[in-house]
Amino acid sequence: MAEAPDTSVNSAWSRLDRVRTPSGANAIAFALLFLCSVAFLFVSYCLARALFGGFGSGIGAIAACVAATAAASIFLWWLVPFADFAEIFWLHLPADRRAREGRCPYCGYPHESRPTCTECGQSTAPLPAWALSARPVKRLACILVPALVVGSIAGEAWCRLDESRFVAESEAARAQRLAFTRPRAFPASFAKLSVDRDGRFDSAPWIEPDRQRDWQPADASRLERGLGWKERADAKSADGR
Ligand SMILES: [Zn+2]
Questions:
Q1: What is the 130 CA–ligand 1 centroid distance (Å)?
Q2: What strands, in cross-sheet order, belong to the sheet with 201-204?
Q3: Quick one: which of 54, 56, 32, 65 has its CA closest to 151?
Q4: If 130 and its partner were Cys, which of 92, 213, 227, 240 is the partner (CB 3.0–4.6 Å)?
């Protein structure tokens, strides 16, 4: 009597894995995941740098920006199934199709409801569907960690280049002791780089205009826009009638 086929899921998958998964498929998927992650983390780093503010960056500022970028990488974890791209498209989907068509999951021979394939001798039990496991999580972690390093280095380099450009652009204004400001480079163009009359550089996420919050209009009729203006306007029109 022949030895009972090994029906454990892991050995079934590893036997199929060796035969059917093209080695280049996951390499392409990993490269795309890496590039997407680097782009996202680069933008995150630049935004963190602009939001924290300050011109130039020391170790503390860089550490804070890297921490913020690492926190932003939580939005990349939904990509986890793409780390199993080759297995899903070359193993699980064809195996599901064969199971629906009543064929052996390993060789594709019609098994006609026999428990063992007459062609290859393997079990004809359908293979389990793809499920989230430690493997794609580990793979994505191995992609995100270098992506965080590359994205942060690129973001820091981009911000420093922008700031050194600003120093050059503001030279004429500083020579005349004038204030000068312009937006940061993409993707942080909401923030402003500035230099004041004393030549102090600064960067702020947004410039707060100096408001005098206790200011009141001299003309009392213009107070209408304050709290309750609608009630007062209604009362006034009722009086007028
Ligand atoms: Zn078979």
A1: 21
A2: 180-183, 192-195, 201-204
A3: 65
A4: 92
Same domain, 57 and 81: yes
Residue 151 inside a domain? The answer is: yes
Same domain for 178 and 158: no
Q: Which of 159, 149, 147, 152 is nearest to 186 (CA)?
A: 159
Does residue 40 share a domain with residue 70?
Answer: yes
Domain end call among 104, 135, 165: 165
Report CA(2)–ligand 1 centroid distance (Å).
15
Domain membership of residue 107 (yes or no) is yes
Between the CA of 122 and the centroid of ligand 1 the distance, in Å, is 6
* Structural domain that includes position 72: 9-165
Count the neighbouring beta carbons within 10 Å of the beta carbon of residue 185: 18
Query: Tens digit of pLDDT for each residue in 10-63?
Result: 556 666 655 567 778 888 999 999 999 999 999 999 999 999 988 988 999 999
- CA 155 – CA 66 distance, rounded (Å): 10
User: How many domains is the chain partitioned into structurally?
Assistant: 2
